[in-house]
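Run log // design_07
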């Protein structure tokens, strides 16, 4: 549902997590207590959450319930479950957890081996059978993943995995116009969500206001291609700096939200 006459804009909780790229997470450090920051996220004005799975998996039930029952609602479950494993157990478990959290979309990443495209597609099709029809699987398409990065291969994967109402795609604002157009040319009917980030080669992100002219161009391009979906503030200024902490990152995400709403022309303003 599109609330308040405008586009649905979510906060990706990975944006406010200092350990987002730490693998494995050291025993003496833990991801943030997301429940403690839900009031701040709600006050920032986001319509929903794209929850990083580590913020819910393995946390105490009381804390999990605080997150799940708090506004804004969880709309997308950000999963890193593997498609390289032919055992469906973990994927089924993620589906169950995401549904219990109220998510209607599960973000996933396809494998990197083009020779396994049929196997990956079959595993997604099997995954679809294990979750309700109302839940979509959202493939994150960006550079660094051989299949999802190549629009032709990605289209072939999608066609074999399932219909566009169930298997959809996420694109990113930092990509070139040429690459975004190619994605829409090959599987535009599946593109339902956008990750907003302008990460550079050093893993740093500018305030969205500094990239506003480029974001205006990207929004115009996406709309010209027929896009009318939802958005997630995926990364924001402050990550990988001394301000890489939830309070500062939520403040920055709120500023970025204002910029994005202004560009989209939302009536939230």
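design_07 sequence
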């Amino acid at each position: 549902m599109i609330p308040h006459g405008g586009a649905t804009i979510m906060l990706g909780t990975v944006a406010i997590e200092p350990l987002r790229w730490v693998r494995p997470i050291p025993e003496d450090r833990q991801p943030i207590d997301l429940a403690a920051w839900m009031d701040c996220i709600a006050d920032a004005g986001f319509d929903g959450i794209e929850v990083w799975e580590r913020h819910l998996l393995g946390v105490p039930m009381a804390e999990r319930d605080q997150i799940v029952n708090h506004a804004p609602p969880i709309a997308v479950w950000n999963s890193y479950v593997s498609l390289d494993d032919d055992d469906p157990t973990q994927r089924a478990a993620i589906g169950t957890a995401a549904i219990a959290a109220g998510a209607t979309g599960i973000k996933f990443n396809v494998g990197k081996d083009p020779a396994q495209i049929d196997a990956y597609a079959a595993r997604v099709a099997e995954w679809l059978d294990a979750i309700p029809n109302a839940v979509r699987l959202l493939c994150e398409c960006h550079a660094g993943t051989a299949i999802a990065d190549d629009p032709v291969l990605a289209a072939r994967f999608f066609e074999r995995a399932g219909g566009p109402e169930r298997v959809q795609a996420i694109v990113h604002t930092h990509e070139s116009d040429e690459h975004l157009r190619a994605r829409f040319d090959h599987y535009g009917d599946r593109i339902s969500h956008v990750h907003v980030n302008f990460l550079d080669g050093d893993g740093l992100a500018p305030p969205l206001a500094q990239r506003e002219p480029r974001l205006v161009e990207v929004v115009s391009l996406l709309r010209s291609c027929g896009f009318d979906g939802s958005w997630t503030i995926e990364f924001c200024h402050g990550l990988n700096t001394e301000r890489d902490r939830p309070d500062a990152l939520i403040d920055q995400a709120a500023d970025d939200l204002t910029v994005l709403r202004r560009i989209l022309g939302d009536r939230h303003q």
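Strands lie at 9-12, 48-52, 74-78, 105-108, 136-140, 167-172, 191-196, 230-233.
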